[in-house]
Amino acid sequence: LAGGIILGVALWLRHDSQTTNILYLQLGDKQAPNTFYVGIYILIAVGAVMMFVGFLGCYGAIQESQCLLGTFFTCLVILFACEVAAGIWGFVNKDQIAKDVKQFYDQAFQQALMAESETNNAKTVVKTFHETLDCCGPDNTMGTITPLWRDDLCPKKDIVMKNIIESSSCHKKIDELFSGKLYLIGIAAIVVAVIMIFEMILSMVLCCGIRNSSVY
């Protein structure tokens, strides 16, 4: 059940409309940075393997098989080690993910302001960011200095001044988007880790109980 829940959360994050709209974008020959999906794929793999390993442990407990319970424990240890490694990787790269996406957006924005931007899809990329995140421009300062580009690139022309006042810059929205998603991934990883620890303890207790009972 825990594996199924983790798998469901991971698949929901993988197919979330906001992240897929942004991370599937392509600026010329350059693909949007999709490092974020590494953590998602790890969660998907862990959830799927947990479902299989959980069935293995349940069957081993019903059959009172020390071999199956020992295999169950070994698989849990390997999964736990992989999750700890993934958690460390995610903690180290949590700021880099949003930074890479912001750099990609800035490159598209700069190209959209240039005359030759009509030859590529820079404006489409920028508009997708603006419409998906409901933002307008990379920062507040540029919005007040160069307001002319807003009518062409922003999704809501009638609330330009409202956007300036509320500071709804795309940099801020990108940070909020990925910090929220990474927060969910972190919660899921912690829940899985706690469940795994209890599973390992209980499987060893049950395995030892079966071994001791077989003596008598």
TrEMBL record:
<keyword id="KW-1003">Cell membrane</keyword>
<dbReference type="GO" id="GO:0008289">
    <property type="term" value="F:lipid binding"/>
</dbReference>
<dbReference type="GO" id="GO:0002250">
    <property type="term" value="P:adaptive immune response"/>
</dbReference>
<keyword id="KW-0472">Membrane</keyword>
<dbReference type="InterPro" id="IPR018499">
    <property type="entry name" value="Tetraspanin/Peripherin"/>
</dbReference>
<keyword id="KW-0812">Transmembrane</keyword>
<feature type="disulfide bond">
    <location>
        <begin position="136"/>
        <end position="154"/>
    </location>
</feature>
<comment type="similarity">
    <text>Belongs to the tetraspanin (TM4SF) family.</text>
</comment>
<protein>
    <recommendedName>
        <fullName>Tetraspanin</fullName>
    </recommendedName>
</protein>
<feature type="transmembrane region" description="Helical">
    <location>
        <begin position="182"/>
        <end position="206"/>
    </location>
</feature>
<feature type="transmembrane region" description="Helical">
    <location>
        <begin position="36"/>
        <end position="62"/>
    </location>
</feature>
<dbReference type="Pfam" id="PF00335">
    <property type="entry name" value="Tetraspanin"/>
</dbReference>
<dbReference type="GO" id="GO:0042127">
    <property type="term" value="P:regulation of cell population proliferation"/>
</dbReference>
<dbReference type="InterPro" id="IPR008952">
    <property type="entry name" value="Tetraspanin_EC2_sf"/>
</dbReference>
<feature type="transmembrane region" description="Helical">
    <location>
        <begin position="68"/>
        <end position="92"/>
    </location>
</feature>
<dbReference type="InterPro" id="IPR018503">
    <property type="entry name" value="Tetraspanin_CS"/>
</dbReference>
<feature type="disulfide bond">
    <location>
        <begin position="135"/>
        <end position="170"/>
    </location>
</feature>
<keyword id="KW-1064">Adaptive immunity</keyword>
<keyword id="KW-1015">Disulfide bond</keyword>
<keyword id="KW-0446">Lipid-binding</keyword>
<keyword id="KW-0391">Immunity</keyword>
<keyword id="KW-1133">Transmembrane helix</keyword>
<dbReference type="GO" id="GO:0016323">
    <property type="term" value="C:basolateral plasma membrane"/>
</dbReference>
<dbReference type="InterPro" id="IPR000301">
    <property type="entry name" value="Tetraspanin_animals"/>
</dbReference>
